[in-house]
Amino acid sequence: MMRQAGRYLPEYRAIREKHGFLEVCKTPDLAVEVSLQPYHAFRMDAVIVFCDILVPAQAMGMDLELGDGGPVLANPVRDSVSIGKLRSFDPEVETRFLCDALRQLSRTLGSAVPVLGFAGAPWTLACYIVEGRSKDGFPAAKQLFYREPATFRMLLDTIASNTARYLQAQIAAGASAVQLFDTWAGELTQADYRAAALPAVQQVIREVKVAYPNVPVILYSKGTSHLLDSLAETGADVLSLDWRIDLAHARRRLGSRIALQGNVDPCVLLGPRQAIAEAVTAAVQKTGGQGHILNLGHGILPNTPVENARLFIETAQSIRLSASAKAVPQ
Amino acid sequence: MMRQAGRYLPEYRAIREKHGFLEVCKTPDLAVEVSLQPYHAFRMDAVIVFCDILVPAQAMGMDLELGDGGPVLANPVRDSVSIGKLRSFDPEVETRFLCDALRQLSRTLGSAVPVLGFAGAPWTLACYIVEGRSKDGFPAAKQLFYREPATFRMLLDTIASNTARYLQAQIAAGASAVQLFDTWAGELTQADYRAAALPAVQQVIREVKVAYPNVPVILYSKGTSHLLDSLAETGADVLSLDWRIDLAHARRRLGSRIALQGNVDPCVLLGPRQAIAEAVTAAVQKTGGQGHILNLGHGILPNTPVENARLFIETAQSIRLSASAKAVPQ
To answer: Is B147 in the active site?
Structure first.
């Protein structure tokens, strides 16, 4: 469940009352505790480590502040000199807290429950690094891309190689799968996606696969109905799609070679309860329940009632149970 | 050019230094002046009257504030009692300033230059009316839609009938065409679009057409790659699409019965200049230049250089000139 450790859980809010967001990320005991909160509450099939996609930007030398208005990188990078100064970082040094949290999580959970690592995809991270904050359409990032494509490619290269090592380190520390978040891929036309975002995400996945050919890579993107064919070329094993893509259409279009993840509208979890059960059932029916990781189409909303999150997961689990009962001859 | 009277123009900023946004909307002389600024600068093919899509929400009884953080409706409407209190307004009374501005514009421009009126589409206006402000995914609006579909439909009905009368009044006052802005249609799945947004926008267009069968209705939407077939059922004469939809795909999919408008990425206008000319040419080539109103795919950015806006328009005009030269036997 996207953002499964988060503000909708009272036990998470209790931790955050005492500790800042980045403090939780950087204190393995706290990161482990909040990562496990949803698992203890709902027993979902996997635990995703608690962190933020901008942590690597900080490790590359940027000033990261996480305030109420969203993350801010106070020193946005907009020319080749600043890009050249971005550091290649050693994940076991600069982001050791994350590796420690993953080691602790995988030790705690054992082999029965997979732990997921994650990172921002290069284009999305570049959006923040150039823009400095979330901004509709990311005009500064696009301007750099249009005006100085070679400079922008250098930035994507720097991010991609750092991201590949960062994910490799997470796998070495115990992640059974990794997810890339390309939240802003959907801002791009197909031509621009293919020119900028696609080669960079391909590079990350290729490098991860060279070291760990059997570790699944999940790629999330938002608003990418127009990019489905290109997403299939990324090398990802699983495409995590937002609520606006019809999963039956995606399955027809992409075939069964690529697993799908998603894609219930997080607003559905605000209620009513009947709509939640219907949305879960509809999502599973669209893929036939094969090669499908049920999930939300975007992050769970902070005002989601806990009992609705529970219903979302329990409905999915009951569908699976009834499917396996049918699969076993009576 | 979407948001063609706006902050990218120094003469607009000069007016806005002395007058608030709503003050400009509500003072016909000022609204006419800023509406004509881009026409005087660039001589585009049409002038769109200066106003805001939330003006009708105010006329329906909501408290509208337009601050730096975007528009705010201080008294969001979230239950059937509040919805029942929304007023049906008389456009020639509550929004007479807009009708006056249109009369003045059409008198000034004569028949050679069409003047466009506009309104928000019901779903998009409902998003603001329920949420109170722009918020990622409009969760409060969707929650109301999921939890109380009959209540939400009542809200859409109220908005739709007000909007139809509002557009009729604009046409009566001199608008040669009207545009509906369904900026947030793309937040909806296809099923939800068909259940909520589509019937309401159909109602508006149907009512406008009953009174003015020959006045073209343009429908803008953003992020609606997954909704193309449904958009074709709205009754709109022209679909204005954002930059992420491939116009060639849209034309193949929708045929030539519906004209297309758009769809250059407004970020392209930040430069470089060569990319602007290329983007205009590419957009026109994708439709063959037939049944196509060249436009941006979203609002022009405030930091767009004026000379780039000029190049956008001049490139389009030169393509048209060369096309008509070819069409006339030498």
So the answer is: no
CA-based nearest residue to B194, from B233, B154, B223, B160: B233
Which residues span the domain enclosing B75?
5-240
Cβ of A268 within 8 Å of Cβ of B301? The answer is no
Number of domains present in the structure of chain B: 1
Could you give the CA distance from residue A106 to residue B232 in angstroms, rounded to a whole number?
Answer: 51
Tokens, residue A42: 């709902």
Q: Is the dihedral angle over the CA atoms A128, A134, A138, A144 positive or is it negative? A: negative
Q: What is the pTM of this model?
A: 0.94
List residues of chain A with CB under 8 Å from any CB of chain B.
137, 139, 142-143, 146-147, 186-190, 192, 223, 225-226, 243-246, 265-268, 270-272, 275, 298, 301, 303
Which among A139, A188, A226 is the nearest to B245, CB-wise?
A: A226
- Of residues A7, A153, A206, A320, which has the active-site annotation? A7
Q: Distance, in angstroms, between B244 CA and closest chain A CA? A: 4
User: Does residue A233 form part of some domain?
Assistant: yes
What's the average pLDDT block by block, 10 residues per block, for chain B (330 residues)?
A: 96 97 97 98 97 98 88 95 96 98 98 96 98 94 96 98 98 98 97 97 98 98 97 98 97 95 97 96 96 97 97 95 69
H/E stretch holding B65:
strand B64-67
In a domain, A283, yes or no: no
Q: What is the CATH number of the domain that holds A67?
A: 3.20.20.210
In a domain, B193, yes or no: yes
ipTM value? 0.91
Taking CB atoms within 8 Å and a gap of at least 24, the contacts of A256-262 are A256/A290, A256/A291, A258/A232, A258/A291, A259/A291, A259/A292, A259/A293, A260/A287, A260/A291, A260/A292, A260/A293, A261/A218, A261/A220, A261/A292, A261/A293, A261/A294, A261/A295, A262/A293, A262/A294, A262/A295, A262/A296, A262/A297
For residue B139, the distance in angstroms to the closest alpha carbon of chain A comes to 6
Report yes or no on A50 lying in a domain.
yes
Assigned token pair, A136 = 């509709």
CB contact under 8 A, A271 and B143: yes
Say whether B16 is catalytic: yes
